[in-house]
UniProtKB/TrEMBL annotation:
The keyword Signal does not apply. Pfam families: DS. This is Deoxyhypusine synthase-like protein. It comes from Estrella lausannensis. GO terms for cellular component: cytoplasm.
Length: 321
């Protein structure tokens, strides 16, 4: 039985029913020639969402991505160091001493999974430092995802792959040359490392990386170009800046630039955030109408659940698996 058939048979009510409705609406959106913008918050890369997301990208179900710096880098960490990761099945029971022991072993914990400092973070640091130094010397400034794409396309990492590369959403995105927007990239491990190299004068300037404002300008260009021929949907995983940053591109174009472009044509958010008023990420979709992001006709869905459970189901449904 296909996942979609299972869900149609069993997912009849509440959040389960919304999963089916949002999936069907995604398919209908694509059938009308629509494009889908996906946002990734939380630790979705370490949750290995790439197993399902990569295929969504390859089959042209996702056309642009906004993600945290952590999600951008952690897909790469997992790609080259998966065999050195450690799972902590009893993570709810860890004491402070247990946490300190993990630190002393060079294991950085993300819920039930530990990222190895040496095999993941420091290995990628050595590789990407060469790209930073090269860009610095040549006077270039790149977006965060451009450095990642350059590293992947160089083939220098291939001998280190420890997962099937078809399960890396970053490799799939590089193959499709998808634009990836990384607001607040400074809040990531590689960004912290980059700053350390500027402070120690190994890199001469901070603007080796292009700014968040420049990323918004790039997003404006992408939206305007894409919206000329395609309605654009917005599928948000989690809350925070990964979603809050890109959804604002529409009122920027319509209200600040005073240019006539369509609103987002589909909206869905998977979040276990309690619906709140005054809490930006926890606000109901209707509030986005007042900000000029969604229309009263935009198909809108909120799935209140764990994205690591729900997102792969929705992806498989859209893929027809």
């Amino acid at each position: 039985m296909k996942i979609s058939e299972f869900m149609k048979k069993n997912y009849k009510h509440f959040n389960a029913a919304v999963c089916v409705e949002a999936s069907e609406a995604w398919i209908q959106h694509l059938d009308k020639g629509g494009k889908m913008f996906l946002t990734l918050a939380g630790a979705m890369s370490t949750a290995e969402l790439g197993i399902s997301l990569a295929e969504m990208i390859r089959q042209d179900k996702v056309h642009a991505i906004s993600c945290t710096g952590a999600n951008l880098e952690e897909d790469l960490f997992n790609l080259v160091a998966h065999n050195h990761y450690a799972r902590v099945p009893n993570w709810r029971e860890l004491t402070k001493q247990d946490e300190l022991d993990l630190l002393n072993k060079g294991m950085n914990r993300v819920t039930d999974t530990c990222i190895p400092e040496e095999h993941a973070i420091r290995y990628i640091e050595d590789e990407v430092l060469e790209l930073w130094e090269k860009a610095d010397k040549e006077g270039k400034s790149l977006y965060p995802y451009e450095f990642m794409y350059e590293l992947i396309r160089s083939k220098k990492l291939e001998h280190k792959y420890q997962i099937d590369p078809k399960n890396s959403w970053l490799i799939a995105a590089a193959e499709k040359n998808l634009p990836i927007f990384t607001p607040g990239w400074e809040d990531s491990t590689l960004a912290n490392i980059f700053v350390s190299h500027v402070i120690t004068k190994e890199i001469s300037r901070y603007n080796v990386y292009r700014s968040g404002a420049e990323q918004m300008g790039l997003l404006v260009d992408w939206y305007k170009k894409t919206a000329k021929d395609h309605p654009i949907g917005f599928f948000q995983i989690g809350g925070g800046i990964a979603g809050d940053f890109p959804i604002c591109v529409v009122p920027l174009i319509r209200q600040d630039l005073q240019e006539k472009y369509p609103l987002w044509s589909y909206f869905c958010q998977i979040s276990d955030s309690t619906t709140s008023y005054g809490g930006y990420s926890g606000a109901v979709p209707n509030e986005k109408i007042t900000w000029g992001k969604l229309s009263i006709d935009t198909p809108s869905f909120v799935i209140e659940s764990d994205a690591s459970i729900v997102a792969p189901l929705v992806f498989h449904y859209v893929l027809g698996l």
